[in-house]
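Renewal narrative, Specific Aim 1. Our central claim is that a sequence can be written position by position from structural information alone. The example that follows is taken directly from our test logs and has not been curated for this report. It begins with the structure tokens describing the chain, in the order in which they were read.
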């Protein structure tokens, strides 16, 4: 009986112990599930804030994420979107820190960070399209709609807002965003990118106003003062632009000024840049040039570093078309247009376009097409497996023979290409040497030709101005010698001879003064050209207007004389050949360049058919310009005058 009692007590103790273990195990599982749900909820809020451009809330949420790779991803992504390419030092440190974590090849958080980092700081990378595509694919494989939205927004920023614009791919991305859209933030992004894609229609403006109303309500809601300030800035910018397009200038300024009053935040710089340019455009239309200049300066201060090339091109074109052109400052407008052209020429998008085509091909495959393609591949694989065993022996024998033939042909072809390359290299060296010699000969010919023309001109001046005067002096002195004892008034003959000698002296001084053309005098290059214009206008009845900009400091005497001779030769061409009544000469000195523009309203000519025998000597002038390491552009057509533009480095 005692043994039975002990056994029952032991069984009861054992049962209670097992029950306590089971309860503890169950509570542990429930606690882990609760913690996992909490982490998942924090992740969701962080990504939602990034989509809404609400970075302030993420500061507290990031501390709730367990330290490790995922937290580093969220911290790096938050900093990237907040800085928007304007703080490379901070973003590079975060990005390098993330690289220390060993991750799988298809981690969706890492993929989205790679996409945005390269979007902001490695825009000319030929693989940028692949980074964006990989981010979307990894997010889709993880079934994470929030990461899909962020990857889609990266693609839309690249294809719809920046230099690389592709409407077909943009529409496809917008459709993908519509498939996962669930709230007003998503609707706002869709409205913004639809406007950027189609834009400038009453329908798109109404859609923007509706989106703005929703986002503005949230912006002003209690305890949500800074909610979606980034989205609000974009809507204000686009609505202001749309009102300006529809000639509602005052209403446009209301929205644009609201953008300019927003805080100085890195991710708002691109919107403030566009906004200040739009404000300047309206101020110019209203005739408020000083306020327009101030707005242009503020726009330059807000250049977005992530896409600086595109912003500079936009800035230069704006100054040319909307600031200098309305003021008829054509030389300054040409200067900034030329800078925009040269910068745009430096940017190559060949590799990026290849990636666009690759991405377009990938995004064009629908899910159903993928399934059909997979089934077809499986069927082909089964058929290939049946034939593979039959073809192994034939393939091995044929491969051996083929490899032998290919190896022999490859070796012979390589030797042949090597010989051809060596011959081409020798020909290229000879060609380069010949070109250099020809250029040297042309330069020498131009200098000799210029010197010869100068000698001929000087000889003519001596013959026409001094020769006649000296002949008259000789005649008076001879008359005085023959009639010295016969005349009653020898002093009168001496006075006349002395007067002629004084006139000859003045002629010599005039020729010497004209030799330097006033350039070596104190006045400088511009007064010398103005004197030339006055002299030609008086003697030939031709109206010449001379304008100078930025010529406060003198150039070297040799350079000023050479430039004067070039302008003098161009004016001579106009007098001899153009049959013009008006000539405009413009000289603009920039920091490192002198721009010369000579324009007439004469009969013009066909540039391609111009021959040296016609006596215009433009080839000689061009060689002089090349000797100064400058460039010369001739624009002319029959009946429409001639425009010659010369740029000389200083």
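The sequence written for that structure reads:
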């Amino acid at each position: 009986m005692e043994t039975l009692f002990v056994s029952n007590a032991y069984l009861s103790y054992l049962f209670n112990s097992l029950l306590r273990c089971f309860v503890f195990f169950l509570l542990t599982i429930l606690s882990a599930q609760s913690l996992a749900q909490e982490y998942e909820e924090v992740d969701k809020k962080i990504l939602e804030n990034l989509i809404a451009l609400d970075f302030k809330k993420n500061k507290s949420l990031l501390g709730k994420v367990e330290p490790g790779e995922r937290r580093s991803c969220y911290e790096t992504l938050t900093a990237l979107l907040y800085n928007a390419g304007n703080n490379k030092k901070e973003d590079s440190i975060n990005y390098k820190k993330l690289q220390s974590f060993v991750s799988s090849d298809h981690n969706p958080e890492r993929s989205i960070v790679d996409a945005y980092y390269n979007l902001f700081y490695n825009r000319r990378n030929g693989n940028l399209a692949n980074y964006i595509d990989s981010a979307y694919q990894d997010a889709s494989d993880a079934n994470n709609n929030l990461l899909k939205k962020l990857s889609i927004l990266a693609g839309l920023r690249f294809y719809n807002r920046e230099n690389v614009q592709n409407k077909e791919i943009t529409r496809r991305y917008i459709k993908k965003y519509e498939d996962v859209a669930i709230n007003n933030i998503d609707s706002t992004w869709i409205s913004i990118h639809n406007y950027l894609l189609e834009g400038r229609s009453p329908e798109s403006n109404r859609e923007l106003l509706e989106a703005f109303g929703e986002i503005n309500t949230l912006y002003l809601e209690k305890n949500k003062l800074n909610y979606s300030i980034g989205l609000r800035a974009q809507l204000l910018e686009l609505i202001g632009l749309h009102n300006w397009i529809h000639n509602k200038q005052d209403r446009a300024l209301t929205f644009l000024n609201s953008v300019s009053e927003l805080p100085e935040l890195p991710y708002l710089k691109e919107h403030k840049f566009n906004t200040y340019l739009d404000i300047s455009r309206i101020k110019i239309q209203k005739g408020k040039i000083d306020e327009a200049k101030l707005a242009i300066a503020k726009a330059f201060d807000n250049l977005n570093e992530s896409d600086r090339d595109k912003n500079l091109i936009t800035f230069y074109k704006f100054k040319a078309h909307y600031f200098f052109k309305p003021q008829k400052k054509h030389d300054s407008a040409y200067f900034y247009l030329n800078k925009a052209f040269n910068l745009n020429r430096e940017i190559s998008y060949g590799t990026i376009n290849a990636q666009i085509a690759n991405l377009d091909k990938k995004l064009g495959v629908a899910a159903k097409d993928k399934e059909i393609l997979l089934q077809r591949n499986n069927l082909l694989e089964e058929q290939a497996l049946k034939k593979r065993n039959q073809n192994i022996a034939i393939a091995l024998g044929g491969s051996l023979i083929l490899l032998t033939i290919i190896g022999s042909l490859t070796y012979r072809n390589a030797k042949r290409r090597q010989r051809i390359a060596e011959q081409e290299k020798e020909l290229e060296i000879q060609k380069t040497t010949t070109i250099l010699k020809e250029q040297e000969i042309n330069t020498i010919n131009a200098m000799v030709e210029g010197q010869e023309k100068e000698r001929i001109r000087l000889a003519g001046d001596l013959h026409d101005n001094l020769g006649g005067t000296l002949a008259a002096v000789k005649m008076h002195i001879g008359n005085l010698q023959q009639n010295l004892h016969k005349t009653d008034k020898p002093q009168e003959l001496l006075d006349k001879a002395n007067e002629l000698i004084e006139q000859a002296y003045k002629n010599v001084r005039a020729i010497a003064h004209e030799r330097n053309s006033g350039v070596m005098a104190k006045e400088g290059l511009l007064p010398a050209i103005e004197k030339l214009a006055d002299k030609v206008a008086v003697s030939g009845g031709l109206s010449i207007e001379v304008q100078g900009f930025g010529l406060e400091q003198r150039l070297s005497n040799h350079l000023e004389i050479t430039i004067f001779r070039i302008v003098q030769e161009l004016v001579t061409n106009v007098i001899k050949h153009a049959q013009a009544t008006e000539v405009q000469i413009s000289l603009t000195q920039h920091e490192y360049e002198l721009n010369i523009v000579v324009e007439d309203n004469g009969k013009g000519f066909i540039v391609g058919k111009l021959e040296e025998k016609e006596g215009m000597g433009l080839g000689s002038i061009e060689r002089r310009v090349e000797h100064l390491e400058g460039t010369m552009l001739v624009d002319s057509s029959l009946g429409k005058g001639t425009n010659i533009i010369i740029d000389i480095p200083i």
